[in-house]
Design a protein that fits this description.
The complex is a heterodimer of chains A (236) and B (209).
Chain A: H1 15-32, H2 34-55, H3 59-82, H4 84-91, H5 94-99, H6 105-119, H7 121-134, H8 142-167, H9 174-200, H10 206-235
Chain B: E1 8-17, E2 20-30, E3 35-39, H1 46-53, E4 61-66, E5 69-70, H2 75-80, E6 82-85, H3 97-105, H4 113-122, H5 138-152, E7 156-160, H6 168-183, E8 187-191, E9 202-206
Helix pairs in contact in B: 3-4, 3-5, 4-5
Classes of the chains: A mainly alpha (236), B alpha/beta (209).
């Protein structure tokens, strides 16, 4: 192949296949280190158990507080795993290699964040019924709770990706990451806990879920570009 | 008709790191079949120059061109033609060398496992192909990183201190690989302290502090 020929072709691997490859790689890495995946989940379970113990609430009061407790715990435990989203790749030089792979950094960010959500957010949604039962949330509103958590954790992964991209070059970026992400996550908390709360009170939660859904679409479409831009700055 | 310059051209690069003027108007040209060794004492910006040349770092002034075109406009094509081996071997310690190679090389081209195994064989770490990278020594990791460079099959190699951590046989292997690559009309930009024992077409760029 002559050198000038290289101008004609980008990588022969399509963006979709590259993304699938990155998702597989991230999942494999997560399953090689299951404790990193399990710790935020256990944190979620423990924090939600601490509330009824610490406040020795009456069941009725606990039921009123349950959606808020569930959501705050979900937010905090999601933050635990966000720090490592790009950090380990940046530390061992893999991020440079990904950035030079010929694939768009935005596509790489989408794949990495999606894989991160699968092992953190989706896993959290799956264990949330346990917490729901412990907090006395009626089983009838579990679908609303699960739906709102799924939308909320997905949006949160995207918000967190921006924060992780911005703080990846810092030695102790995890506190700063929380300070960046938590204020942005407030709308998610309001509408997420609101949706579950409304369903528990027998009012339609559709409005809150629609708003959560629109926030999810908003973050999913814009955050990859913001994250890729943040990473490009950190790579310099 | 084809009078466009072949290969890599770095033209009067200026890079500032905070208050430090690291690269002061560095230029270099690298054509097919050439090897350019970047030398200089510590802190003279050798790695910075490599990062500028591969496009990871944008210079404050000057331009980097591939086949006469600024790399900013042909990023996917340029990156496809390039393999960069940084000082860190860029390996995941929880994955095996084979998996590491598959996931990084696989982003550029679909590559059969046998070819990756052959690359590991060539660099002398085939026996470790199924072990997690965390149990490998620094020299073995460097050899795995070299296997990645081979498996990428890119015309332009950018190697940052490829001889680090390698024993005598390993250093000879790097020299052999460079010789084969250059004689097959490849290009190599290598940061190295000691001289590379290659007969022909070796250029040298000394960076001053």
């Amino acid at each position: 192949m002559s050198v000038a020929d290289t101008l004609a072709e980008g990588p022969e691997v399509s963006a979709v296949r590259a993304m699938a490859l990155i998702v597989r790689r991230e999942l494999r890495l997560s399953f090689r280190r299951p404790e990193q995946m399990l710790q935020p989940l256990v944190f979620f379970l423990i924090v939600t158990t601490l509330f009824p113990l610490g406040l020795s609430l009456q069941l009725s009061l606990l039921r009123d507080m349950a959606p808020g407790v569930l959501w705050v715990a979900a937010l905090l435990s999601s933050l635990l795993s966000l720090d490592s989203l790009f950090k380990s790749d940046a530390d061992d030089g893999t991020l440079d290699q990904l950035a030079l792979s010929g694939q768009s950094l935005t596509a790489i960010v989408v794949a990495k964040t999606a894989a991160h959500w699968l092992v953190s957010g989706a896993a959290l949604v799956l264990v949330s019924p346990l917490v729901g039962i412990a907090l006395g949330i009626p089983v009838a509103i579990f679908p609303t709770m699960l739906g709102s958590l799924a939308l909320g954790t997905l949006s949160l992964s995207w918000l967190g990706a921006i924060g992780a991209g911005l703080t990846v070059g810092l030695k102790r970026g995890n506190v700063l990451l929380s300070l960046i992400v938590l204020p942005l996550a407030m709308p998610l908390l309001i509408f997420g806990a609101g949706a579950t709360d409304r369903a528990a009170s027998g009012i339609s939660s559709a409005g809150a879920l629609y708003l959560l859904g629109s926030l999810c679409v908003f973050t999913c479409t814009l955050a990859p570009f913001a994250t890729a831009a943040a990473l490009r700055i950190t790579l310099e | 008709m084809d009078s466009a310059p072949q290969g890599l051209n770095v033209d009067k690069i200026h890079v500032w790191r905070g208050d430090r003027h690291v690269l002061k108007g560095v230029s270099l040209a690298l054509g097919p079949g050439e090897l350019l060794q970047v030398a200089g004492s510590n802190g003279t910006g050798k790695t910075t120059l490599l990062r500028v040349a591969c496009g990871l770092l944008r210079p404050e002034q000057g331009r980097v061109a591939w086949c006469g075109l600024p790399i900013a406009g042909i990023r996917p094509q340029f990156q496809n033609a390039l393999v960069y081996a940084a000082h860190e071997p860029a390996l995941k310690s929880d994955l095996t060398p084979l998996e590491n190679l598959r996931y990084l090389v696989g982003l550029k081209r679909s590559v059969p496992t046998a070819e990756l195994e052959a690359a590991l064989e060539r660099t002398g770490v085939a026996a470790c192909a199924q072990l997690p990278v965390r149990v490998l020594s620094a020299g073995q990791r460097r050899r795995v990183a070299l296997a990645r460079v081979i498996a990428m099959r890119s015309p332009l190699w950018m190697l940052d201190e490829p001889f680090t951590n390698l024993d005598a046989a390993g250093s000879a292997l790097v020299t052999d690989l460079l010789r084969e690559h250059v004689s097959a009309a490849g290009m190599a930009l290598v940061v190295a302290h000691h001289d590379i024992a290659l007969p022909a077409r070796l250029k040298r760029l000394e960076l001053q502090g």
